[in-house]
Design goal:
Elements (H helix, E strand, L loop, with lengths): L1 H17 L1 H21 L7 E5 L5 H4 L2 H6 L3 E6 L2 H13 L20 E5 L30 E7 L8 H8 L3 E14 L4 H6 L4 H4 L9 H11 L2 E8 L9 E10 L5
Parallel strand pairs: 1-2, 1-4, 2-3, 4-5
Antiparallel strand pairs: 5-7, 6-7
């Protein structure tokens, strides 16, 4: 009987990993779809967005009407192969994995409505994300200002990363001088040693990496350590989590003048 106690949990975990992308959608998207809506409504018509940690893109597709109405273009990256495979399928099914029709206001010729790549924000050569497949020339060195992203979005992904300050610094060469970083995620209202122990372990049960327990003070420390950005806004997200333990917040950053 002892072997059953060992084998059954292992089999269940294997099954969960096989369906990791579907588990992600079932657990996360009800919350993150609202976050995408809030961020998209803050963007300007024709903005290009780098979505760092896009996951399965299901939350994005739930805001398809907002994306099309505002003529937005999204390039998403994620290091989880299963998420990227599902994201590509989801975007294609929603008819968002394609270039905008020629002459559409707000889009460069050949610019995609959305696309996703299996990349880490710590990879080298991320400047290629700023270019479309239709771009004939992709010069080495700094990306021209007009080809950079207007916004960078971390949807619950920043504090999942092993080195959040470095992740913030990594996007600086990819965004326009007047660009902004949007961060949405839940923050613990006060530190809890018990939750700090449990939260990182949840990935072994759900296959979803929830990262470390994070308070608003922790985020302020991450931003200060990056030393490239200043906070423009920090507010609770209406219609999302807000209880005595945690709250979902939208945080907007802009580059410090010396970092531009």
């Amino acid at each position: 009987m002892l072997w059953l106690l060992l084998v059954i949990p292992a089999l269940l975990l294997m099954i969960l990993r096989l369906f990791a992308a579907d588990v992600y959608d079932a657990v996360i998207v009800w919350m993150t779809a609202r976050w995408y809506q809030v961020v998209f409504q803050r963007l300007q018509r024709g903005n290009r967005i780098l979505d760092v940690g896009i996951g399965t893109a299901t939350a994005l597709v739930k805001n398809k009407a907002e994306l099309l109405d505002r003529h937005l273009s999204v390039v998403g990256i994620d290091y989880e192969a299963a998420y990227v495979r599902k994201a590509e399928a989801v975007l294609k099914e929603a008819d968002l994995w394609r270039p905008a029709p020629d002459g559409t206001e707000g889009y460069r010729p050949g610019e995609s409505l959305s696309r996703v790549l299996e990349r880490s924000i710590y990879d080298e050569g991320l400047s290629e994300l700023c270019y479309e497949a239709s771009d004939k020339e992709k010069p080495k060195g700094a990306v021209p200002e007009d080809l950079r992203f207007d916004a960078v979005y971390f949807s619950g992904s920043l504090t999942v990363m092993p080195d959040p300050p470095s992740a913030l610094k990594a996007v600086l060469p990819l965004m326009k001088r007047d660009g902004q970083i949007f961060i949405t995620q839940t923050f613990q209202k006060k530190h809890s040693p018990l939750m700090a122990f449990i939260k990182p372990l949840m990935k072994y049960i759900t296959t979803i990496d929830f990262g470390q327990l994070t308070t608003e003070d922790d985020l302020a420390r991450i931003i200060a350590e990056a030393d490239c950005f200043e906070t423009v806004e920090n507010e609770a997200i209406s219609g999302s989590i807000n209880n005595h333990l945690q709250t979902a917040r939208l945080v907007i950053l802009k580059a410090k003048p010396k970092a531009k």
